[in-house]
Amino acid sequence: MITNTFVTEDGKYHVESLGNGWAYSITCQRTGNNFFVQDSNAEQLNQECDDFRCTSVLDQYMEALGGAA
């Protein structure tokens, strides 16, 4: 399985892409809070975040999960 990792441009999130975008593990750099999405949810997240350039979307996900960035 191909795994790529990167930090968003604003430095807020560490993103681990599994299976070339099949799944993502997103970790807040400040709090350490994490969430995981796969399949169509991973594709939807990637689109909503404009390929992880719009981290306000990730902020909303973290807030909804109780792990505000």
Structural account:
The chain has 69 residues and is α+β, with helices and mostly antiparallel strands. It has one domain (3-64). The chain has two helices and four strands, in the order ββββαα. It has a four-stranded antiparallel β-sheet. β3 (23-28) and β4 (34-38) form a beta hairpin. The longest helix has 10 residues, at 55-64. The N and C termini lie far apart (29 Å).
Which structural class should the secondary elements be placed in? alpha+beta
Largest sheet: 4 strands, antiparallel
Work out the count of structural domains: 1
How large is the count of helical segments? 2
List the secondary-structure elements in sequence, H or E: EEEEHH
Bulk shape? globular
State the helical fraction. 25-40%
Content of β-strand:
25-35%
If strands are numbered along the chain, what order do they take across the biggest sheet? 1-2-3-4
Report the radius of gyration as a whole number of Å: 11 Å
Spans of 5+ residues with little confidence (pLDDT < 50)? Answer: none
SS elements, strand count: 4
Distance between the termini: 29 Å
Q: Provide mean pLDDT, rounded.
A: 92
Topology:
Elements: E1 3-7, E2 13-18, E3 23-28, E4 34-38, H1 40-48, H2 55-64
Antiparallel strand pairs: 1-2, 2-3, 3-4
Properties at a glance:
69 residues; alpha+beta; 4-stranded antiparallel beta sheet; 2 helices
Short characterization:
The protein has one domain. It is built from 2 helices and 4 strands; from the N terminus they run ββββαα. The protein has helices at 40-48, 55-64, and strands at residues 3-7, 13-18, 23-28, 34-38.
